[in-house]
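Record 1 of the preview.
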Amino acid sequence: MFIDTHLHLVARKRIPYPWLKDVPALNRDWSYEDYEVSARRIGITGVLHMEVDCAPEYIATENTWVSELMSHPDSLMRGAISSARPEDENFDAFLDTLDLSIVKGIRRVLHVVPDDVSQTDRFRENVRKIGKKGLPFDICVLQRQLDIATALVDACPDTVFVLDHCGVPDIARDGFADWSKSITDLAKRQNVNAKISGISAYAKPDWTLDTLRPYVEHIIENFGWKRVVWGSDSPVCTLNSSLDQWMAATQALIANVSETEKAAFASENAKRIWSLQ
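->
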């Protein structure tokens, strides 16, 4: 049974998402109810909502929506990984407003801002404050930015990090060599975990299991079974696969490992990292 650590939901009448206009395939509502039908069929027993880079003044609204979903009877929703702006001078006030019974982690997408944003003293000090608050920080960067991610981790040794989407490898252009070197280096930092989430989206449309296998195996080889978690990245994964296909690929890729390793990857690590019940 899996905990999905990376679900995006979209409610455009309630929350604006400026970037969606540039991705027509995703520019519609994506409801919890539709996701839940598939999730229960394929063995997902819990889910974390991942922020959807909404307009910043709606971050609290997005987290409130997640809290409403958590209150549904027999809900799969376990909490929110909230958007944040650690580069802002009023970040302390924002951090103090968070309801930690709802917000389980923080993310700031770094590939939509200049590379130097995460290198400022203010940003790094605020990411250290996130760690002191007991919240993990999800790192969302492109393959070319993995060295920037490593620098951020080195500046915040007491914060727990989760690398989203295996570091967004350039699978479609066979970027394995450069990506794998950066991953090997980053994985030496014991406060970093890796999320194997929807990487079919970064392959060509005709991908197969063997297309994804070297990337997944390299992540697991370097991070080990105690520092990897699973995520759907739904609906972004639907750009190149269905949710069901991504789960089937995942199951095939871990078919020959021990039950203890499967359980750690599927749910136990997620429970520990995000303090889930």
